[in-house]
Design a protein that fits this description.
The structure is a single chain. The chain is mostly helical. Among the domains are: 6-49, no CATH class; 193-301, Methane Monooxygenase Hydroxylase, Chain G, domain 1, CATH 1.20.58. The chain has 13 helices and no strands.
Length: 301
């Protein structure tokens, strides 16, 4: 006999049943009522404990339409429009997370660690990255890198408007950190202590000696950018198109043809050596080709 649940009973039918049963003996009526109530209110524990799997699918197109982070088709430009930097970062990294990529950045490690499908490996399983995955990762990375300073500043205004109206959400705080890194200056809360700001997010931190703690979350890609920020602050020109594009989005970078390494301070030199030592521990500094590959790009020469 299948289990009777409270939601399965029709109240009207139950009332009619009681009316029909009035002529019956009192003790049978009491017994029937007791059994019925017992069955009605026996709710399986699994109901209360069963929760849907978290569907972390950000939406930011302003229409309320939920858009996925991963696509089984070629990504179109409309799939990327109105996305925050956080969403673009999650979209690109979801591709690699599906292949078991481990993450050094805490917020990415925390995000993917909460997904039931994510199983980190010692290194990305390249065999799980399909040609479509690689092509989509390239499309996302190029779109992200092509965002102009004006677009980034417009994104900042949007976030700050939301923060002023409702206070910062955890997602807002991450977005402000990402915008800080892209704009080359700290745009987060002024209450955030300097030692809690990444030198990528606030280059002014580079005026002091860096610590291992400040660099622990940075990937090889981030470390390469950070090391070159030190040179860029002194006016160095770059042959790398990736580095040029990154620094040209900041409002402080001014390339100087007369640059020499003699402009580096003692603190600059010590910080470069520290960053290089961590890069070496992780496999060595990235080349442009490897930087592209880490971004998911297919470099076409």
């Amino acid at each position: 006999m299948s289990e009777i649940r409270f939601g399965d009973l029709n109240p009207a039918a139950y009332f009619v049943t009681l009316v029909v049963m009035r002529p019956m003996k009192r003790h049978l009526l009491v017994l029937f009522t007791a059994v019925t109530l017992t069955l009605c209110f026996r709710a399986p524990r699994s109901w209360a404990g069963k929760r849907p799997a978290p569907a972390a699918q950000p939406q930011s197109d302003g229409t309320g339409i939920q858009r996925p982070l991963y696509y089984n088709r070629l990504i179109a430009s409309d799939d990327l429009k109105y996305r925050s930097l956080r969403e673009l970062t999650l979209m690109r990294n979801t591709i690699f997370a599906r292949a078991g990529n481990p993450f050094r950045k805490k917020w990415l490690a925390d995000y993917f660690g909460a997904q039931p499908w994510y199983h980190p490996l010692a290194a990305t399983d390249q065999t799980k990255l399909t040609p479509l995955d690689k092509q989509n990762a390239e499309i996302i990375a190029k779109y992200d890198l092509a965002l102009t300073r004006e677009q980034l500043q417009s994104m900042l205004k949007e976030v700050m408007s939301s923060v002023r109206a409702d206070g910062p959400t955890p997602e807002d705080k991450i977005e402000l950190r990402l915008l800080s890194a892209r704009l080359g200056k700290w745009v987060g809360s002024s209450d955030t202590p300097e030692d809690e700001r990444s030198p990528l997010e606030d280059p002014a931190v580079l005026d002091k000696q860096l610590t291992l703690e400040q660099l622990k979350d940075l990937s090889r890609r981030d470390l390469r950018l950070l090391r070159n920020i030190i040179y860029a602050r002194r006016g160095r020109q770059f042959h790398s198109g990736l580095l040029r594009a990154y620094f040209e989005a900041t409002d402080w970078y001014k390339a100087d043809p007369a640059y020499t390494d003699a402009r580096l301070t003692d603190v600059d030199t010590r910080n470069i050596k520290l960053i290089r030592s961590i890069e070496d521990q992780l496999g060595g500094p990235l080349t442009d080709f490897e930087h592209n590959r880490e971004d998911g790009w297919i470099l076409i020469s």
